[in-house]
Structure to design on (1272 residues):
């Protein structure tokens, strides 16, 4: 293949969209054709994010002016993404959607946790974009629903096991809360703090349960770092956890099963997920560390795009 | 006097006002009579600031409902403070104003840097609230204009000297930027960053120049801490800097002239200012570290109140 | 009693000992009579910890030169504490020991987790120093074993319940790792990191199990803050958790059962423990936030001393 | 050229050496042939620095076992580097030295600030490795002395100007203090702190003065970030500062002259230096932000290597 594929990133002024734009901009195969933003149209992306060094102007979104793109990464809020995904899908554009709109296969579960679904008819078209589980389907998909950051880590940690009494204690950096300036994201609120949130109501719970097939108790905690996420998963199981994980991930380019508990610095600004298991009889603890903006969102989107276009899965990501 | 004095803190939902409320609440002499807030009336202060543990409800400000208070600390934005100060002054209430409204003795300078002055006739009534310079006048004052945080540190560092070619490089924590959630105060903007701001235009410059009587070049930098402020002052002088500082502050309860450069941790959550001088011929460097919310704002307000009511200057502050 | 009691702090150059020295130094009843350090004898404590402002010289420890003290806080490493405690006990000095040496009632459990016990005969003399559980016994004790920081939070969270399948996920600041400069405490190792440690082997586990009477799965995580600790406790129970906690702690001066999940900033530099419970049928999650150096160590030591000397329990701690 | 050049990194277990190893490991032209360490020989580099993902074992240094290398990056402490540089130079290996051993052209100045120089005869061979000033000489050099991190930023900021009364106020992250675990690098010492160091004695001062040709007053400050460095340079000058900077750096691939004061996040993990100038008559302030481990050390070493081997200057660095 000679000329690559043209990609637009919609919603590129947010943390995840901006990183996706940078990864596409430097990708050997994909061309960054357009970036859009509702709030910052007219500004250059490197004004907002100098360190990404993407010297392109943000446009207001207009599907008719996007030009001839082959694919899009959609970084819109939940509910706002689906109509755009539908519009692009109709035009034959392959889509990786970062929102939750097409992650849950059950409409009722989606609507109980989010909003009325704008395009339930497309749910069946979408593939859950965790390459380590759905690689082949992703390669054939026209819509890929990129997993949430916590489900990415939790499902990679526990997916290979049969377990029950599942408790998932997650800790994450502040970029996961998005670019909006709120009391919650104010430096003085976060600094020197450790704070649980979304207790009993976090919308990533049904997503994890869908993939694991068992009920889980899930709590997220905000800690004073910008990027990075650790899930500590406590389960009861009859499996040999370490052996199952090593077998499952033996050939995975981005999954590292390691001998000691990982820190999130180990995977900072990478697409890697580092996993460690401890076991004592039926009790097991599985740790998984990712960068919430990379493997948890934007670089996983590019990993999915690579698959969708028949590229080497690691292209542009090492 | 037997039964103490009743104090209100107006604008107690901001960082400085809330700390002032806590300090008054625990003060052996003063009674916290009322706290007000425009944005958070009806909420308890310990909802907003659990660690201060002030179990009092914020009221909307109404001078007629404040009750019989003897003094007020006004923590309003610049321009909004003066009318309230005037109203209280007229009723015979002693006021410590945390805003810039009465710091600058020259109305034109104030108006060039801030807004049209709502009550220029009261400027002459106000005393600049740096106890180490104006102790006696403060004791007799009915309006005290609490210095800005940078002027507090810079004037304490350089006030005793005759110097020229004055450069003041300040570094401060994020609480100095206030409670408003903005892009500037978002955790992800501040974390792992060092960033200059207000270059050439910072409104604390004329305040410092008023007190020092010489032109200064001043730049502030934001660093990822919540509280704390260091000024590094580069000057040329014929003085023996160390000797002058030690003499000036020999009897000061809150000024520590020390042998090594101070870190801001040394004075965290205290009313102390720690000063160190280095000199090589005419070149001298004077460092001063304070907590910007304490000596830089709220605890200095209480130090002033102590003087205004004839109390021991350190009462409630050690 | 008129003139107070004289207290020594042994091992005052560490984080916990230094804070204990400061709290005693400012205490209305206790007099700080001596501070000792093996590594820093001859230095003033405020050289090491300027912000504590304790202007006293550290001595090498010599029980015969301690003078006539009424009580001691011993902040020695595990194994090194017991001989000193024994020596002081023999002389009739009341002791609060911050080490693990007298926390575990079962010698074999102690020796399996620590070292050979130097003074097993004194274990029966010692009372576990969690005032909310053993207030009366502490008041009569001559040796109090101050709990570990994690057990303090975990036992306060779960003590009032009957629960099983207990998982305790703890997050703590770096001061808990002590003053030793190691790769683990290097700023660059901690900053922007979240890292589990002591997985499956943490020595606070048997201490928690002793108090709760059930097996627990416990993991600690290091996060980039200096002070503060949160335990997230996942249990299965038939109890009405919230009701039990409120009943248990209705009259406790330092325990706050609150409506929303606490952050560790809420209790920073205080002796408070803030607890919140969430429940859905048999599944319950109990959060407890403390300052690991305060309620987790040094201020709890003073709370114990207050009890041992018949003082108001909150004296010097509000 | 077809087959690239073989490079060894000596002293690869330190922060700078490890990053240099990673950059060479991923470089399109250079091959990482060997990495050495005195303290960690036998360990894999990705054990020490997982996030660099260099899967190579550290050897003890033995010049006879290094194999046929074309170049070496030497990341040894001052004084220890020169003998190794001499040994490699004698064997015809091109060397980029990260230490101060060959930066100062005047032996006496070196010896007054460091130690007795082990190989003064080689000083004349060495070129000061700031490509933006000495590009042509570097291309012909066999020994390149990589500048200190502060001199890199300060000389890039002020080199194009004629100025006097030069004050350089630098702020840096903790990685600049190296990997050694000390009280200074302990998380609790750094966190929530801002602290000056090396006042009046910092050894980067003569290096800056050598390049600028005027006396400078220089102070460094440690702030709680891991990587990043900002110099705020206060000068008096008759030049049009902005115009001179823009002219000097118009064609530089790594120097960005920008409209607003830079934050260090803007250049994090890059070889860029971002510069901004403010001027009011003769008073000017020039800001320069770099990543102290990248442009300040390791990536600048690679930039120099690129020049020495006739490669595109940006190869492996964008």
């Amino acid at each position: 293949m000679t000329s690559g594929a043209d990609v637009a990133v919609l919603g590129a002024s947010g943390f995840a969209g901006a990183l996706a734009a940078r990864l596409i901009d430097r990708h050997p195969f994909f061309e960054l054709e357009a970036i859009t933003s509702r709030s910052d149209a007219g500004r250059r992306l490197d004004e907002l994010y100098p360190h990404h060094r993407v010297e392109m102007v943000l446009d207001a979104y207009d599907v008719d002016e996007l030009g001839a793109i082959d694919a899009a990464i959609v970084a819109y809020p939940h509910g706002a993404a689906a109509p755009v995904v539908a519009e692009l899908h109709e035009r034959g554009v392959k889509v990786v959607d970062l929102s939750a709109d097409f992650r849950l296969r059950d409409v009722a579960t989606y609507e109980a946790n989010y909003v009325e679904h704008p395009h339930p008819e497309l749910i069946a078209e979408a593939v859950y974009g965790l390459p380590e589980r759905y690689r082949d389907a992703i390669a054939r998909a026209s819509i890929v629903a990129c997993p949430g950051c916590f489900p990415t880590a939790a499902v990679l940690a526990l997916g290979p096991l049969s377990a029950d009494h599942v408790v998932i204690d997650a800790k994450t950096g502040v970029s996961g809360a998005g670019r909006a300036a709120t009391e919650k994201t104010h430096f003085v609120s976060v600094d020197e703090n450790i704070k649980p949130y979304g207790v009993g109501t976090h919308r990533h719970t049904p997503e994890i349960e869908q993939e694991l097939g068992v009920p889980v108790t899930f709590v997220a905690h905000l800690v004073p770092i910008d990027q990075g996420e650790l899930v500590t998963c406590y389960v009861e199981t009859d499996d040999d956890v370490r052996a199952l994980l090593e077998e499952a991930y033996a050939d995975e380019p981005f999954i590292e099963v390691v001998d000691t508990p990982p820190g999130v610095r180990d995977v900072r600004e990478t697409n890697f997920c580092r996993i460690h298991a401890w076991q004592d009889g039926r009790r097991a603890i599985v740790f998984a560390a990712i960068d919430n903006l990379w493997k948890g969102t934007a670089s996983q989107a590019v990993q999915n795009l690579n698959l969708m276009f028949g590229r080497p899965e690691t292209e542009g990501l090492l």
